[in-house]
Structure formats: structure tokens, C-alpha cells
Write a structure and sequence with these properties.
Pfam families: I-set, Ig_3. By secondary structure, the protein is mainly beta. Helices cover about 10% and strands about 50% of the residues.
């Protein structure tokens, strides 16, 4: 009885051993046959800004088979190492910037470009550039000064922001000493317009309604969220015209960059007597043409407002100012940018040696300044087998063993970067 029981136990154990061995062998076979290169499941944003008092954590994760290893590199390709008390890479691949004192600021750490890299036995891929900027929490004041204007013309008040915080601080609203508030988001009607750069236009300046008030600007720090009122106020000093004089443009922009879908305000303020008329034109095929007024294009007292801006709206706009004495014109170059996106097709190619493949980098966004191709982080160099059919098309023919790996196209402009990823492996045939 004991002998039989032992046999039963022995048989049971043998069955379990066989089951485990078969399972492991099956898993190993499956793992080997289903190898896949890395692809990002969480890719960092192009721009990361943080206050020195708060720090930041930039997540990056990927999948693949086997599971990819996450590392970080600098712009020059060198690995990112820990800097005690300032920068640390977690085991999960998160890049951490710790809170620091102002005197601990390091440009090579806190104002630098980083890339996340995912790597396994199939190949390696890199994220788009991550521009990291740390802002120091420091005291600042904004100022508003008096301005002079001839009665009936447009007065332009400016909010003067210190240069060391100007890139982070924007004007939210203008306030008068009588409690009136003119908000930036709706200050585009009637006699008032508030521009994204902070200027306040007051059209048809009148000594009784405008000349008796003090004006303050209210600003917000976009990272810290701190809201401040200007430490000084400005007044509009309105003069009577005693004789005619030609128009003079007192405020304009030479260049303006906006995002697709936003509302654009092209400024143009002029002073003269008689009060000058202002019209807008656009340069089309070297010829200045009047703008057709519709729901998207509106002229408001010298300001051209473009709603739901499109990349096609980019170009040179002309502000034409005239009165009975003379005329003047100034130009504004408008660029409407659209977010970059890149995608490679086919995304996965399994081919035999001697065959060929064409990778197509499909690009969306505006403008596009450059397109570059890399394989396993190294630039793709054209030769007798590898040819650039165009900026967006890469041909590999005939395929050899050294061609397998991860291919990427990187698309860039002055505002950001996008990347697409594809995998080339050798074996049975499929495209996806």
C-alpha cells in the first residue's frame, strides 16, 4: 500500500515536472518567435518647465519583447547620470529633477535638452527632444508709464516686465482706478483691445473718459501661477491738435507667431491729424490685395482679428495708414504653426534577405524644417542599397542581415519635434 502510494506520488510529481518543462519550453519558443522592438507607451512632452522650489518628474515608458530598458541621453548623445541633489533617473525610467536653491542652478542640468531611449535585443529608439527649463523663484515688479496721445487717436499702454522673467509672465488684465477691469480674453471689442503681448489699445482717446484715470496691469507667472499687479500706474495724457500732421505708426509687430486654431490680433496703432484711417492688405503673389471681410477676418479700429487661424493664413500682412496729409505702410509677417506629427508605414516589416522595402514617413503639421532618418539611434547613410527616394521615403534594397532593427524619422521645426517608428526583421513575410 505504501509502495503504491509512493508510486502515485512519484507519478504525480513526474507529471508536474513534465508540465513545467513543457510550459517553459513553450514560453521560450513563443518569446523567441514573437520578439518585438521597443515602442513608446508614454513619450515625454517636448517642453517641460518647473519652478526650482517644486522640481519635476518626467515619465517615459515603453513596451516590447523582451521588455525594453529605459535610459536617458543628452543632446550630444552622452548618457544622463545622476547629479546628487539635482537630477536622478529612477529604476522605472522616470527622469527626476529635485527642488533646489537658486545658487544650485546649473545650466547643463536645468536648461538642457534630453531624450528618452528604449532598447532591447531587437533595437533602440529615442524620443523627441525634451526641452527642460527650470525657473528660479525670484522677486519682480511690473511697471506702467504715462503715455501721450493726440485727442481722438489710439492710446497704447504697455506693461513693462523685467527681462529675467518676461518669457514666463503674461498680462491677464488691465485695471483702472475706478474698479473697471479689461480682461485679455475678451478685450477685443468696443474701444479696448488687449494683446497677448500685454499692450492695451484705447481707441478714440477722450480727455473726459480716459484722461482722468490711472491704469494698472495684472500679470500671471505661467509656471508658479503667481498673480501680481503693477507697482506703478500709467495715465493717458491727451493733447489737442493745433495743426495737421502726417500719420505715424506708434505700435506694430514685425513678426507674429501663433498656434493653429487660436484667435490672432495683428496690432497697428497710428497717430495723426486728421485722425488717420487704417486698412489691412495681404501680400498674394507679390501683389497687395484687400482682405475679404468674413466671420474669420475682422478689422477693428486698426487691429486685424483672425479667428480660428489656419496655417494657410501665414504670410505678409500690410497695415496701410493714411490721412489727408500723407500715408504710411508697415508689414507684419504672420506664421501660424500646427503641431508636428510623424508616422512611418509600414510599421512592422518581416522580410527575407534580398527583398526590398520602402518606408514612408507621413508628416502632418506646419512648418516642417527638416526630416532625418536614424536606425537604432544612428543616422541612416545613403549608399548603393539604401536610397532616399524623397525627404519622406526611404528605400532599402536588397535587404541584408545588417539592415534589421528599429527605424525612425524625426521631423523638426523651431517649435518642436515629432518622430515615427518602424521595425524591420528577417524571417517570414508580413507587412503591417
Amino acid at each position: 500500500m505504501i509502495h503504491i502510494k509512493n508510486l502515485i506520488i512519484s507519478s504525480t510529481m513526474t507529471s508536474w515536472y513534465l508540465f513545467i518543462i513543457c510550459f517553459v519550453l513553450s514560453a521560450m519558443t513563443t518569446t523567441s518567435s514573437e520578439r518585438r522592438g521597443p515602442f513608446f507607451t508614454v513619450e515625454p512632452e517636448s517642453h517641460v518647465e518647473f519652478m526650482n522650489s517644486s522640481g519635476a518628474a518626467i515619465a517615459c515608458s515603453s513596451q516590447g519583447n523582451p521588455s525594453p530598458q529605459i535610459t536617458w541621453i543628452k543632446k550630444d548623445g552622452t548618457p544622463v547620470s545622476d547629479v546628487t541633489g539635482l537630477r536622478h533617473v529612477r529604476p522605472d525610467g522616470t527622469l527626476v529633477f529635485q527642488p533646489f536653491r537658486a545658487e544650485e542652478y546649473r545650466q547643463d542640468v536645468h536648461s538642457a535638452i534630453y531624450r528618452c531611449v528604449a532598447r532591447n535585443v531587437v533595437g533602440a529608439i529615442a524620443s523627441k527632444d525634451v526641452n527642460v527649463r527650470a525657473a528660479i523663484n525670484q522677486y519682480y515688479e511690473t511697471q506702467v508709464y504715462d503715455v501721450f496721445v493726440t485727442k481722438g487717436n489710439t492710446a497704447v499702454l504697455k506693461c513693462h516686465i523685467p527681462s529675467f522673467v518676461k518669457e514666463y509672465v503674461s498680462v491677464m488684465a488691465w485695471m483702472r482706478d475706478d474698479g473697471s477691469i479689461i480682461h485679455a480674453e475678451n478685450g477685443a471689442g468696443g474701444r479696448y483691445t488687449v494683446f497677448p503681448t500685454g499692450e492695451l489699445y484705447i481707441r478714440m482717446a477722450d480727455p473726459l473718459t480716459d484722461g482722468m484715470r490711472k491704469y494698472y496691469c495684472q500679470t500671471k507667472h505661467r509656471i508658479s501661477g503667481a498673480i501680481k499687479q503693477s507697482s506703478s500706474s500709467g495715465r493717458i495724457i491727451i493733447r489737442d491738435a493745433h495743426s495737421t500732421f502726417p500719420p505715424r505708426v506708434i505700435d506694430r509687430r514685425a513678426n507674429l507667431i501663433v498656434k493653429e486654431g487660436s484667435t490672432v490680433k495683428l496690432p497697428c496703432a497710428a497717430e495723426g491729424y486728421p485722425i488717420p484711417q487704417i486698412h489691412w492688405l495681404k501680400l498674394e503673389k507679390s501683389q497687395a490685395v484687400r482682405l475679404s471681410k468674413n466671420q474669420r477676418f475682422v478689422e477693428l479700429g486698426g487691429t486685424l482679428i483672425i479667428r480660428r487661424a489656419e496655417p494657410e493664413d501665414s504670410g505678409k500682412y500690410i497695415c496701410y495708414v493714411n490721412n489727408s496729409v500723407a500715408d504710411e505702410r508697415v508689414d507684419t509677417e504672420l506664421l501660424v504653426s500646427a503641431p508636428l506629427r510623424a508616422n512611418i508605414s509600414p510599421k512592422q516589416v518581416k522580410a527575407e534577405e534580398g527583398e526590398s522595402v520602402i518606408f514612408n514617413c507621413s508628416i502632418k503639421g506646419h512648418p516642417v524644417h527638416s526630416v532625418t532618418w536614424v536606425k537604432n539611434l544612428n543616422p541612416v547613410v545613403a549608399n548603393s542599397r539604401i536610397r532616399y527616394l524623397s525627404r519622406d521615403l526611404l528605400q532599402v534594397a536588397p535587404i541584408v542581415r545588417e539592415d534589421k532593427g528599429m527605424y525612425q524619422c524625426f521631423v523638426t521645426n523651431d517649435f518642436g519635434m515629432a518622430q515615427g517608428t518602424a521595425e524591420l526583421s528577417l524571417g517570414g513575410k508580413y507587412l503591417s
